[in-house]
Amino acid sequence: MDDKQKKRPAVVNGDGGIDGVLATAIRNGEDLCPIVRHAFEVGKPEVLVNQLRSIVKKKEVEIEELCKVHYEEFILAVDELRGVLLDADELKNALSGENSQLQDVASSLLSKLEELLAMYSINKNVAEAIQMLKFCGQVLNLCSKCNTYIAEGNFHPLVKTLRVIERDYMQKISIRVLQRAIEKRIPAIRSYIEKKACSDFNDWLVHIRQSAKEIGQLAIGQTASARQRDAELRTQQREAEEQGRLGAGDCAYALNVEQMEEGSVIKFDLLPVYRAHHIYTCLGIQDRFQKYYFQNRLLQLNLDLEISSSQPFLESHQGFFSQIAGYFIVEDGVLRTAGRLLSHSQLETIWDTAMAKMTSLLEEQFSGLEIASHFLLIKDYVTLLGATLKRYGYQVAPLLDVLDNFRDRYHELLINEFRKQISDVLENDTYEQMVIRKEYEYNMNVLSFNLQTSDIMPAFPYIAPFSSSVPHVCRIVRSFIEDSVNYLSYSSHVNLYDVVKRYLDKFLNDVLNEALLKIIHNGTLGVSPAMQITANIAVLEHACEHFLRQAAQLCGIPVRLVERPHGGLTARALLRATQNAAYIELSNLVSSKIDEFMDLVNNINWTAEDPPQMGNEYINVVCIYLDTLISTAQLIFPLDALHNIASGALEHISDSIVTAFLCENVKRFNLNAVMCIDNDLKALETFAEDKFRSTGLNNAEKECNLRDCLTEARQLVNLLLSNQPENFMNPVIREKSYGALDYKKVASICEKFKDSPDRLFGSLSSRNSKQSARKKSMDALKRRLRDFS
């Protein structure tokens, strides 16, 4: 062994100090993985194996040496162990004997213990049986209550009792027969409850559909009442503002509390819905009920949205829209009070369905309407429906958009209806001044349209400056404004007044103005009707301000906004143009009548042998006619129009005289004919001067006297009667005395002028020097005019 120990160090130390490190690591219980990994990395695993074997041999040697050191102690320990075994055998024998004695003594006690345990088991079983009977009694009591609830139809406590049985008792029932019986009956009871609740809910569905129309009518009626109160309040406010604008005194404002009360709450029975929903929720099948409710209410809505083909929509629209209103009022109540039975998204889906159907139906029905009042009836109820449902949070803009889309169609029908009324009124008018005999007639026909010329109440009978068609036309225009505002109000217009004003302008332009032009140009008017129509147009043009104020009041805007600059109607300009056309037509009629009376070519002896002693007879007739014309015009026309009519007639007479001299049928004329026309002109000038003063035109600061309208004829006659007619060629004299005459006309007329009477041997008659001088001057004028031409 000593030889072996001498050889080992060489082996262990064959690789330097690795053997010592490995031994230390093994002794300390360290992980050898790094050492093994290192050995393989350096490529020397055999060295590591040899080192491990060396360590193993070293430990074996240590064990052998330890055993040699403790060998004697081990022998002693084995001897002591043998002694202990002997003692243990003796103790075992003693214990066996004691055990035999103990069993003999305790055998009787064990039998008594078994009897006691049996008694304890019986006692336990009896207690459990009693407890079980009590538990089953409670279960049976709950079952009895369930039967009672079923008999009474009291499903809410019935469902709660079933839930208690299932939750607290069912799993604890030890009697299988009873448990199976209850398990079998509970689903049947649940099914019965569900059917019964569904039956009650179905009855409610039938009832609520029958009641929906009444609910909708009541709600729409409340909206209509509120709208009426608002209209009355706005009317009072407008009256107060008007009084304040006119300075009528202090305006008293009062708040009528009785009219400020909120509309009564619409009540309807939702208890069956709550009950059914709660029962289904307790049964754990609330989703099924929610789906059932949604589907059935949607089916009802689809039925409600169908219109009857046997009844016109105009007659059935109120019931139709009332049914829809009632339906959605009920749905709003269900949404707000029935928990999660109906969701916002579901209600929006239903509402979108109804809105699409209603808008489509309205468009279809409106497209077929041909009477404006039918439009208005349906529109009023649609806006009431929209206002009612808007209070419940529904979006009604698409309904109002349909009304806006058909507003042109409505006004087209409305204009066509009123066009016939306007035409009938104008055609049936006698165009005589309206005689008003009573104060109420004055208020109704004059004051109500602001047609008065003075704020002082006139004496009766009062002769108005217009004919009976004017107040009739004003009433028609007022009706048009009211109907237009009625259709456009409560819609989506931001500026209602501008829209109404646009349609009013269109009505006045396309209907009233066109009808007036038709009457003016139909060729059947006399002078008096034409004169009255001209006066009527002036009154109607003035009434446009009243029409605008009325539209503003109905639209609820301050009147001061209407009175702003550039805020008037374009129809006023067209009416003024139409009035000018009427003036022209009147002037043409007057001119034609005057031509009828004058007929100068035939009424004047252009080659008279003797000087006239007085004017022609026709001039008296013309003066009488002009006097009648001006007197009649003075009653109905303002001074400006009166001056235009009178001056137009006199200018036409002047033109007629000049034209007569130029007429081809007048080949020649002499001094006597000119003197005759001079007498006629003097009579006309006297008449014009008298009328200018008697009618008050002289006080109207008119630059042109009526006599001045005869200037051209007067200057022509003065030229022909002049002793030195060749002065016409003198620019200064011509500008002063003959400025209205035209060269060419004077040249043509002078060529026809023969300053000697047509009689036998007239050329041989003696002439005084004055006549010779005039003739020479006239001949000189003729030559100079020929040269000038």
Automatic annotation (TrEMBL):
Exocyst complex component EXOC6/Sec15 N-terminal domain segment(s): 51-220
Pfam families named among the record's database cross-references: EXOC6_Sec15_N, Sec15_C
Gene3D superfamilies (UniProt xref): Dsl1p vesicle tethering complex, Tip20p subunit, domain D, Exocyst complex subunit Sec15 C-terminal domain, N-terminal subdomain
Gene Ontology BP annotations: acceptance of pollen; Golgi to plasma membrane transport; intracellular protein transport; pollen germination; pollen tube growth; vesicle tethering involved in exocytosis
Localization of this protein: Cytoplasm, Cytosol
One GO location term (cellular component): membrane
Entry-linked InterPro entries: EXOC6/Sec15, EXOC6/Sec15_C, EXOC6/Sec15_C_dom1, EXOC6_Sec15_N, EXOC6PINT-1/Sec15/Tip20_C_dom2
Residue intervals of the Exocyst complex subunit EXOC6/Sec15 C-terminal domain: 398-752
UniProt keyword terms in alphabetical order: Coiled coil, Cytoplasm, Exocytosis, Transport
Function: Component of the exocyst complex involved in the docking of exocytic vesicles with fusion sites on the plasma membrane during regulated or polarized secretion. Involved in polarized cell growth and organ morphogenesis. During cytokinesis, involved in cell plate initiation, cell plate maturation and formation of new primary cell wall.
Family, as annotated: Belongs to the SEC15 family.
Name of the protein in question: Exocyst complex component
Lineage, uppermost ranks: Eukaryota, Viridiplantae, Streptophyta, Embryophyta, Tracheophyta
